[in-house]
Amino acid sequence: MLTRLIVNVYTWIIEISLWFMLLISGVSGYYYTVPILKASGWILENEPVWKICGALFFAVATFLVSAVLIGPFLVLVDIRKSVRALETKDSGSSSSVLPFERREPSLRSLGAAERGR
């Protein structure tokens, strides 16, 4: 029970921090794009458009970096949820017969089939 709670809280913390990082990067991109471009020597005619483009660029860059860095943890949590769902699904029908699985032919099985003739 406690382990499930810890994993659920951990996923919520990760998700909230991801949204918070996107928000902060968008705001910082909005405020710092124009000074960065002016410091690098650009002459800007329409600053509000550059601010909006900077906010979008910073947010997209943060999303991509966080997807690469934090994505594997979310994949592990998703795999854990899928395994839990399969376990609860199988535990409810314990009296069911497992389906027959066909085996690939091998030399041993071919020899046994020939001896049976």
Q: What does it look like?
A:
The chain is mainly α and 117 residues long. The chain has one domain. Helices cover 79% and strands 0% of the residues. The protein contains three helices and no strands. Helix 1 runs antiparallel to helix 2 (47-92). It is elongated, with a radius of gyration of 28 Å.
Average the pLDDT over all residues and give the rounded result: 84
Number of helices: 3
Q: What is the terminal separation in angstroms? A: 57 Å
Helix content: over 70%
What is the SS-derived class?
A: mainly alpha
Instruction: Describe the largest sheet.
Output: none
Give me a quick take on this structure.
The protein is mostly helical.
Q: Which helices and strands, and how do they pair?
A:
Layout: H1 2-39, H2 47-92, H3 107-115
Helix pairs in contact: 1-2
Features:
117 residues; mainly alpha; 3 helices; 0% strand
